[in-house]
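Allow me, if you will, to draw on your knowledge of protein folds for a short while. Thank you for your consideration; the sequence and its tokens are set out here:
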Amino acid sequence: MARNEEKAQSMLNRFREAQLLEAGHSRPKTRRPHLASLAETLDDAERWRRDVIREISRTVTQINDMSLPDTEIRQLNDDINRLLRTKHHWDIRVLELGGPNYIKSKAGEKSEARGASGYKYFGRAKDLPGVREQMEKKHGAKKNKNEIMRRVDAAYYGFGNDDELLEHERKVTEQRMDKLRRAHDVTLDSDFSSD
């Protein structure tokens, strides 16, 4: 059986491709530009954005395979994070070209665990050695709202002892006034001495 590359180069296949191009039914396949800013039209930008989303979906499906070793899971997780950054660039480009705002809220993204500096862990990558400890340490340091509000008192809202603040303000004002008087006295002395 012939390989796909050989089939694509067959005379019949090249003839059909030329016919479709002449009729305007198909455009030649191109590779996604490395930089999103190279996309000139909104249609192209949205097409490449959809392409990145398909690739993310495919990779997330692969990362859940139970037969993969840890090294491949780490590699797939790195690929997903790289693709998410690429998707963000395409989202920005679509917005620049006048398309819809895909960047809006991402409140629905609960399927991943966040690591340091925005790095996300998907699927089985959450169970890798070191990742679970990092997540437990990060989430263990979090305090709930009740614990935080228990420590808030009147001083937090500015209803504390104002006597200290007023005394400090009076001292600072006095120091400034003395400085201005000295500067004014120096200028007056120099004016009278020049006469």
Q: What stands out?
A: Residues 163-193 form the longest helix (31 residues). The two ends are 112 Å apart (CA to CA). The first strand starts at residue 113 and ends at 114.
